[in-house]
Amino acid sequence: MALRINYNFQAEFGHVNILKTERNLNTSLERLETGYRINSAKDDAAGLFIADQLNLVASALDQGVRNSQDGISAAQIAETSLAQIYDKLVTIYTKAEQAANDTNASLNRKALQGDINQLIDAIDRIAKATEFNGKKLLNGDFKNQYIHYGPRADQKLSISIDSATAADLGAYAVKGDGQSTSDATKTLSSLITATDFEYNSASDTITVQGVDLSAAFTSGQMIDAKTLADAINKNADLQAKGIEASATNKSVAGTAFSTVSIGTGGLTIDVYVGPETTADFTLTYASGTSLSLTQLIDDINTKAKENNLNLVAKDEGGKLVLETEGETIALEVTAGSGTTIDLGTLIEDASGSVSGGNTGSAVKVGDLTVLSAESFAYDFTGVSSPTGGLGIAATGTATHESLRANAKVDTNENAEYTMKLINAIIKKVDKMRADLGSIQINLETIIQNNEFSAVQTREAESRIRNVDFAKEMANFTKQQTLMQSGMAMLAQANQLPQLVLQLLR
Looking at the whole model, is its pTM more than 0.85? Predict the structure, then answer.
């Protein structure tokens, strides 16, 4: 019971509790009005820090999704343009195939070349015009470009798109014009040893892009473009790198063939096709007879057919033409007394006459072409220039053969090469498209992950920042009740000092 009138402890105590209840009631009311448990740092300092960081990450994840979608859009535009370029390349390929047919006159091939040039111009325009948001995509500028996909610094994906312009679009090639060697006084085995037209396992090297191909040859064999091309094409490592090879061999005698009168001792011609130094067949002509170009061609073709050899003999303007599918062509000639035969009438770039019981020989190595969409190195030490027969620098790197400069169809030879070149370019374009497809798949995966991560991050933030309405409503009701009871009790406390008056009566 209060016995003092200058200080009412009960009233003061009730007032303080009412103020406390009012603050709690206002906080609860604010939370119910905003839906947030944390409306300022005083509500939960640590919780505010954590929630703000989670909100930052969620917002950044959303932006990463938008960035990735822009990356997909750019890749889709580039891939669509490359699809158009692919269509143009297919048309060029078919026109080159048409031009390769020798039923075409020069005017036909000129017209086809004009069509191809127009298609090349179209490819160039597509490559130079393709862009996204003002950035060129296929002219070589879009290299090492980053798509920032993550919520943190340096979370980025690098994108590079090679140039698809007519000058840059092409293949890498190593081309060798098969060499010839001859000697009117040497047997074939002596000739290839003396001129280094044979493979020597102790000193020669045959590698392409670091892959050793020497197992394709045996020491003492002749250098053979077809054998090397087959070794390249059968090698799984080189296939995986997109490196392919082809070989052809056409020997056109430099001198027109004159009928040979066969003297005493007759005439024998051993014919070799491929790298082996054992004759595939022998042509024998008795003394007292004569050998015409027609007879020689018939005999060669007959024997080649009997022995299942890829060798065809022809007459072109009175000159002997020998063709294989890239295999080396070699002849060893033994002329008896009174017989003279010029090696230059038998093999391209050969020279010297065999006569008087001597033996001479001549060799023509095939032409080798190695193509790839990507650059590659090679080492043909000992089997190529300046020694050997492949007609290629001993070591080096493939030369870039551009679409613009090398798509020629004016001759059968050029048209055939253009087909090979376009095929390699198509593989390059397909790889570019495949890479862009992989980028799109990667970005779509990133988008999916970002979207799920953003949802989970916002859920984590919500648990910290947002109010639990059921719980807060219960607290609000409690504080409201306390406020009402507090006000009632304060009114009672204010009446207590009046009891002192009873003592003063």
Answer: no
